[in-house]
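Meet the record:
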Amino acid sequence: MTFGSLFAGIGGFDLGFERAGLECRWQVEIDPYCQRVLAKHWPHVWRHDDVRTFPPEPVGNWTVDVICGGFPCQDISYAGEGAGIEEGTRSGLWAEYHRIIRVVRPRFVVVENVAALLARGMGRVLGDLAASGYDAEWDCIPASAVGAPHRRDRVFIVAHAKGDGLPLSGAGNKRLNDHPPRPKWFRPESGRDGSGCDAKPLPDLEGVRRRKGRARRIAGAGAGEKDQAVMGHAHRSSPHTYAASGEQRDSIGESSWWRVEPAVGRVADGVPDRVDRLRGLGNAVVPQVAEWIGRRLMEAIA
């Protein structure tokens, strides 16, 4: 199964989908720093620099099974000014996403955005997909569902061309049935949060402290011990490292390991690309969530 990546950023969707067995054919990204990251990890993939001029002729060169991407959230997020998906110059780029779907006509579409989309534009997105011949299912999946010690709630919409009959959920259920498995060191929380998403497990502080101690032990290990210690964890520097290991995991999240605090300083201090890197990380899709969705797609067509 092939895919193309819109608003690719630093490649969170791309890395997760490749781990699930999909093949990346093209990426569209306008930010120069993100373009350099993509070129490093996907040197042989076609790239285009602007969704507003994509796809170039001939359109047939850009045919893929899946289009994925998280369009800008700044005008949707509760942290912004709330211009919305209709009027916002950034989140309004959903119109370009929709246009590309209608031109390329993939079998499946996977859309990501902040949880506020549920109240600030979900009707527009679903309406556009339906008008283009796609049925959709959606759910809010937090990073904590794949082992991260933070919430980071994000809405994921999986749309399929009518007639494909993608069996991701039971009859009449418009939400993905199951979240990725939670690690044992997470505790459940009941109720709903202000974003409209179902509340998800929050980190158990004792578990976090145990993991911090483990991080210190790994940091102090010798080179050989450190390589052995991190082998099998979800954190990888590139898709090729993961693929080369030959590792196969039956589920996502159970064996994942996360640093409690990313090793990225908050002060630039002359370090090249520090601010760009922080912005890229902040905008990125969590690869483990993308991988879980990619595996569901692969299972659905098997």
